[in-house]
Amino acid sequence: MDRVTAELLVRTGPDTPMGRLMRRYWVPVMLSSEIAEPDCAPVRVKILGEKLLAFRATDGQAGLVDEFCPHRGVSLFLGRNEEGGIRCSYHGWKFDVTGKCMELPSVPQLADRMKIKSYPVIERGDILWAYMGPKEHMPQLPELEWCMLPASHRFVSKRYQASGWLQAMEGGIDTTHASWVHRFELEQDPMHMHAEANKYIKADRNAVFDIEEAAHGLTIFGRRNGEEDSHYWRITQWIFPWFTLIPPFGPHALGAHMWIPIDDESCWAWSINFLPDRPLPAEELQAMREGKGIHVKYLPGSFVPLANPGNDWLVDRQAQKDKQSFSGVKGFSIQDASLQESMGPIQDYAKEHLVATDRPIVMARRMLARSARELEQGTAPPATDAASQRVRAASVLLDRGLKAEDWAKEALTSLDQPVFSV
Ligand code: FES
Ligand SMILES: [Fe+2]
Q1: Are 388 and 213 in contact, with CB atoms under 8 Å apart?
Q2: Which atom of ligand 1 is nearest to the CA of 92?
Q3: Can you say whether the dihedral through the CA atoms of 397, 402, 406, 407 is positive or negative?
């Protein structure tokens, strides 16, 4: 990718074209449970390069406001969250969840005119989402399948990733890598083991792609050899601008990710597992909580993975030799994170050499770049219609004569259908 386009895609601050594009969507900010109780401790959160403060007021309403007090610039993280607002500890100025100044003790007559930045928030799917764009363009609320399910059907986690959002997200679009870095993990992990899919993924490392532009973004049909008379297809959706769905493995829960810039050199990698029609089984839920599958173990008291760049992702050369792990790094998400973080905080895109299997990435980049440029010219951004997000990934064996694209037009049209998974 040329440097100009790369810069366009990786810069997401408020005064950048990509930043303006992203701010036209509901942005996943944090887990609702990070501000679990009314009047609980406020939480600093940086998102799209903006330093913000989340808190839950006395009535339970969540707020997302500028982190810093407009008086002298003190962090409201040190403030008191009480009686319907956050009060700065320095001189007592107080703000509600909408950013309105409730009290300005030293000059009360100024209170009406004082305000801090605040963003509308909603809570859905165990997540606090914010809308950070122009008020008149607020889109419909997100309707991704997993966030509309009862809480018992879903497990959501997030982890800090020390790399730009794009190189992280591209791992979610590039499904060929499952045959490589994840290959030994497939039969060991409780959320992947015993799936027929593992056999095909391991046997055929050269997936071939058909890609379709759709209302939600892209649908990526990855074909591998199946049985003698069949192909094995993994059907993955990229939902504009930062969601990916993971084709399922046997009877296990479906998976999804979100890739949200903290700033240009770090991002939140969200991982979600869900079952459309039933609660997650207790053993799988327990395994997810323990950081198995697409989830991770953390450094205590943080969302930073235990295996991180500071300790070379705990790479185990013996496990690599023994074919317990392809790269020596353990766990799906840390395998992904390690490779993407190893590229540097922002990959040098001008130096890469893309090949045919990278076509899904190329198409996603084109759509992002085109949408960012067009928005600057006044064209409305794509995929803001929430209903378009109601799509589901699939993992199927189809007759060799059949194209997954054609099959999907008949079979993969509604979320009321059973999950297609082998
Ligand atoms: S700095 Fe916040 S009230 Fe003075
Ligand atoms: Fe991966």
Answers
A1: no
A2: 3
A3: negative
